[in-house]
Amino acid sequence: MNKSKILGHIGLAARARKITSGEDQVLDGIRSHRAKIVFLASDAGVNTTKRITDKSAFYNVMLITEFSTDEITNAIGKTNRKVIAVTDQQFAQMIKTALEDI
After folding, report:
1. 67: burial class by Cβ within 10 Å (0-12, 13-18, 19+)?
2. What is the pLDDT of residue 100?
3. Three-state DSSP class for 31?
4. pLDDT > 70: what percent of the chain?
5. Domain that holds residue 91
6. For residue 98, what are the CA distances in angstroms to 10, 20, 85, 89, 91?
7. CATH number of the domain enclosing 69
8. What values do phi and psi take at 38, rounded to 5?
9. C-alpha–C-alpha distance, residues 59 and 53, integer Å
10. Whole-number Å distance between alpha carbons of 53 and 63
11. 14 and 76 in contact (C-beta within 8 Å)?
């Protein structure tokens, strides 16, 4: 997994406005099947981690927890984001391809 490439793809998706960020918006995206991939910070709180993990598993949405809050925040250019969701299928496919590359 090439972390910098994945973070670059997340940044591209953010500039194209194809992500949602924040716990409530991501949960809404998961429930409405708009979220294709969810990124949860590895240093997120216990309650946030449980809510996002449970919803992602129930709705069968890919969940990635390999990145810290700082990495996610720097990738999207916002402040203090613990969870984001990619809402575009093409960006999600680019990220999945980057995840598979070793």
Report:
1. buried
2. 85
3. helix
4. 98
5. 3-100
6. 11, 20, 16, 14, 11
7. 3.30.1330.30
8. -115, 135
9. 10
10. 7
11. yes
For 12-44, letters b (16+ CB in 10 Å) and e give ebbeeebbbbebebbbebbeeebbbbbbbbeeb
Q: How many CB atoms lie within 10 A of CB 7?
A: 19
Alpha-carbon distance 49 to 80, whole Å? 15
Q: Which two tokens stand for residue 39?
A: 């990124």
Give the type of residue at 69.
T
Amino acid identity, residue 66? E
Give the pLDDT confidence of 4-21 residue by residue, as tens digits. Answer: 999 999 999 999 999 999
Confidence at residue 3, expressed as pLDDT on a 0 to 100 scale: 87
Contact between 68 and 43 under an 8 Å Cβ cutoff? The reply is yes
User: Which whole number is the average pLDDT over 40-57?
Assistant: 95
